[in-house]
Amino acid sequence: MATQRNPLVIGAGPAGLTAALDLVHRGVIPRVYESSDHVGGLARTPTAGQWRADPGGHRFFTQHEEILDVWKQLLPHDEWLAVPRRSAMLVDGHLVPYPLVGRELLTRLGFRSGIRGAGDLMWSRFRRGMRAVEKEQTFREWGIEEFGKHWYRMFFDGYVRKTWLSDPNNLSSDWANQRIRPIDWRRAGKRGDTDDDVFRYPRLGPGQLWDAAAATLADAGAPPSLNSPVVGLHHDGRQWTIELQNGETATGDAVFSSMPLQLLVHMLKPAPPKHIRAIAATLRHRSLITVAVALSEHRDIPFNWVYTPGADCRVGRVQNYLRWSPALAPEEFTGTYLGLEYFTVPHDDLWRADDQTLRAIVERDLQVLGAGNSSIEQLMIIRSQFAYPIYESGRERNVVRVRDYLRQNQPGLHPIGRNGMHRYDNQDHAMLSALRSVGRYFGENVDPWLVNTDPGYHETGLLRS
Ligand SMILES: Cc1cc2nc3c(=O)[nH]c(=O)nc-3n(C[C@H](O)[C@H](O)[C@H](O)COP(=O)(O)OP(=O)(O)OC[C@H]3O[C@@H](n4cnc5c(N)ncnc54)[C@H](O)[C@@H]3O)c2cc1C
Questions:
Q1: Is the CB of 206 within 6 Å of ligand 1?
Q2: Domain coverage including residue 253
Q3: Closest ligand 1 atom, residue 341 Cα
Q4: Whether residue 33 has its Cβ less than 6 Å from ligand 1
Q5: Does position 410 have pLDDT exceeding 70, yes or no?
Q6: How far is the CA of 11 from the centre of ligand 1 (A)?
Q7: What start-end ranges are recorded for coiled-coil regions in this protein (predicted)?
Q8: Residue range 434-450, pLDDT digits in tens
Q9: Spatial strand order in the sheet of 376-389
Q10: Are residues 402 and 330 in the same domain?
């Protein structure tokens, strides 16, 4: 039975590679098509000589044993680092540790700010307590309720505007509970490295894991085909045919697709009804430009990540790469290696800026951040077009309508992963949706769309052996 199966996988990011690995594990050889010249998708490790960069700062953590098992099988124990999580927000010239700690908020930003923040928070909590029914909230409403007006404005309003490129009044709060940790009132300012504060990280960046996955697939006779964008998808009632940009085609009994959901719908033949295409067209993404920049001067920054909500610089977040893994830089390097993250959309000036213009923006931001006097030894620009599915109001309903249409009309088509399901997945959820989809293909009673629907905060128990 298994030998009659010939599935096709679109995309060699975490979801596509995981689907392919599981298919191989079950005795089926898939064909994997990847549009770019690398595997790993958003979680790749771009390189320039001995320099490596992480496009997004990928913390590896999961609450799912089966994902942990995949990670452990792909990379040996000594290739994993245990990295203490240290983030901060740069506000009014102060580095405030994040997730926010109550005692720090009350003391670090001055007495008046502390009192005001605490007063606003109590008022918000009182109002929440008085609310009779739960209702859908915008991000701004959620933020004020969770942090009080003063601390919401100080830490989140500017940051969300800069990173989501949207007014917080127009953003839904669906993702916020999962991603933003509440204020910790129990802990003192200094953190101990409990399991909650430590994540795993491949020594050579996130792509090391996905390169290992691709090597495993190649050994099994299923190497991903790189530089192979899928541009068409046709179902003739019996089998699937995908069309590649170079004109080649491939046929199969099922398709696992991690390409953006709206593009998938747009490519399908026979074309879905007009209203489904219109709904799919509303699903949009934000893009990310990461500039990895090595500075000659050494700075001891005790954080892996610094969020920069201020309007005085354009960068939204800065990674301190050597706190992730020293192996991201050449061994002899003694300076500071940063990853400046710029959030953008494909039609704005930043996305269209050439390398020289971007370099000028980076140099200006480094001045604002106080690192302008150090010479730049190395600079690498990484563009990720489909970085973040945008959570606009109505997104959930629209995704469900597309999902239901595909389920009813194309049961052999399995959307998987972050963009494939238009959901704000981390790697583990993208992988899990792939595993569940393969399970469904084999007739198991599982639902990939139920992955990542837990509204609670995700990052507990990050480091589990
Ligand atoms: C800034 C940032 C920070 C992040 N931090 C973390 C973190 O700390 N921890 C964590 O676990 N996750 C993190 N993530 C999320 C993580 O990157 C994603 O969850 C993961 O990469 C999703 O995998 P995927 O395979 O679903 O999608 P992708 O990684 O997007 O891979 C999809 C692949 O499909 C290919 N493709 C698209 N269209 C086509 C086509 N038509 N034909 C062929 N191939 C195609 C793409 O080129 C890509 O390689 C972060 C993401 C970002 C942007």
A1: no
A2: 2-44+63-75+205-283+392-450
A3: 1
A4: yes
A5: yes
A6: 9
A7: none
A8: 999 999 999 999 999 99
A9: 94-98, 87-91, 305-307, 317-320, 336-344, 285-295, 376-389
A10: no
